[in-house]
Amino acid sequence: MAAGQPDQVMEAFLNPDYEEFVAQMPRSVFIEAFRLLSPSYFIEPFKDIHRHMHPYSVSIKGHLGLRVIFDDFAINISSIIRSRRSAGHAIGLAEYTHLLDCARSLGDGLMADYIWRSMAEDNVAPDLHCYNYYMESKVWDASYAGLEKYNLRVTPFAYNRRKFGTHWGWSGYGTAGRSVRSQLRVVFEEMTEAGHEPDEATMVNLMMASARVGHVAGMKNVLRKVWNIDPDALKEGFRGSLTEYDRSSPLYPTDRLLVAVAHAFGMNSDVSGALLVIDHISNFYDIDVPVAVWAQLLELSFILSSRWYGPDAEKMAVGRVSFDFVMHLFRTMTSEPFNIKPTVEMHYLLAKRAQKERDLILFKENLHRVYEILEETRQKRKVARTMVESYLNPDHTQIEPEVLRSRGFADAVHAYEVIRCRVMQQTLFVERLTKRFISRWNWEQLSAIPLRGKWWTVDFPRALEEWSDFLPESFEYNTRGGRIQIHDRNSGNPSAQTTSHKTIPIRRPIQSADFRMEWPTEVDDDVIWQGYRDRMSPHDLKHPLIKRLFYPVPIVDNTANEDNDEALDPELERPRARILFDMNPIPWHPAKEYASQRVKEYELEGAFGPITMGGYPLPT
Fold first, then answer.
1. What DSSP assignment string belongs to 247-300?
2. pLDDT digits 0-9 by tens, 415-474
3. Do the beta carbons of residue 366 and residue 347 sit within 8 Å?
4. Is the backbone peptide bond immediately before 337 cis, with ω within 30 degrees of 0?
5. Handedness of CA 78, 81, 87, 88 (dihedral sign)
6. Whole-angstrom Cα distance, residue 447 to residue 450?
7. Among 167, 161, 157, CA closest to 316
8. Non-local CB neighbours of 153 within 8 Å, separated by 6+ positions
9. Where are the bilayer-spanning segments (predicted)?
């Protein structure tokens, strides 16, 4: 633990061989090491990457879902606390503060409840940070992972679904009798009675709690009372003077408030109001508007620009903005004085919006930009992989023990793991947009485009050739004479709906009869790691860092003979595999996440004891 590398500290804490050492650690040393297990290292890098990906798509790609990542982290830190307590050590304020910070990052209200109740039983008085972390974990409960992340907008339908919290995809924070706003008001009153003065984070949590239940008046009231911001007056053109705070004041706003305003107003279908408030705060307090705020505003504008149908169409269309509004917002953020560099998620949303508006030129422009960003990210992945390979000797099957114990190797594996997940996300974006490009619309029927009249004879064949690497193994598309369906021999399997390759999929140049170009191909990383895996000793393959390098690689080989002794490697406790393009992935299912959650609840109960009273307030 001397190196202070989070992965190595986690491994040491969970290693049974070090159990006695961990049990005898002085409290000051334990706290210092425990704080290294930070969600900023284990959780935050993956939250934004998974934001725009469905759990099913992630599982098809062979990667862990975000909720499983969350639950694994919660299980690990709960197991550490359980071991520490079983050795007779008390858990103090420093440990509880870090645990609540973890629950905040995970958006895990249940975990926060276990910790909060345990603090009361141990007579540990929460400080301001504890109250803020606890409130934030309730506000964002189950809002980052699963299908709940798609259901954050406040509508009559959403309000009724969240009222009970029993519907699939609508768990987490509640409304009506389970109102998260009511829960936070109780916590806030307890905090003030304990003598703690609120800060910006506290007021942001209260504003967000009102926004979650559609209490727009309460949300605006927080802004008026604390910062003298009147959103209604701003819409009328009156820009009053805001409350002046010294920069050292705990209520001096930061970009945290800007992000909260964008999310709270946007979830309540008022993007224009969010823009006015953000502009007013930014100018008065001299705060730069971060990329996260623009990303929130663009995403919410994309949602509000959708057309709604059915009996609830009128209610769902409240706050609807036009496609021109979305494009104006994008041009504003990317030009002077903001000069925001668009992210791949922004281009992905604009391409989807262009497809709905049947704007072929804008669609292709954003598709090409997504691919360019993918190429840039692949180069970063190649550099990160080279760094990892520098610690591995490809000519030897045995890895030097000091390499596996070095901080540099652990840091290189973590950096590579994050960038590889980013490549997976961006590759998925290109595949989805390519499928939309080919199969969703008959672009020839569109008007006001220069390609009109030659889509099926010229442009469609070129598109098939240019993006063939990203097309799924089974897909269909419309033609003048009907619908064409392409199926491979495994079209019944989920893998047929995505694209798997031995080489990196690329955008291929358009070739003609008098021009042919040999395009260089690069072997995919999973194939490279498979070569390392075949050469490594079983002992090295059991090391946690090595397992993480090979996790997406070992997929079940369906062609393996059941009588073959090598079909199941007992050292690895999992089936041996070939390479990624032989895979037969197991589809995502909510039952998997449910099983993971049950294991997490078991560990939480073992570490902090059972919660005997349901809901808040818990005994204090």
1. TTSTTS--HHHHHHHHHHHHHTT-HHHHHHHHHHHHHHHT----HHHHHHHHHH
2. 999 999 999 999 999 999 998 888 755 565 554 455 555 667 777 788 888 888 888 777
3. yes
4. yes
5. negative
6. 9
7. 157
8. 267, 269, 303
9. none
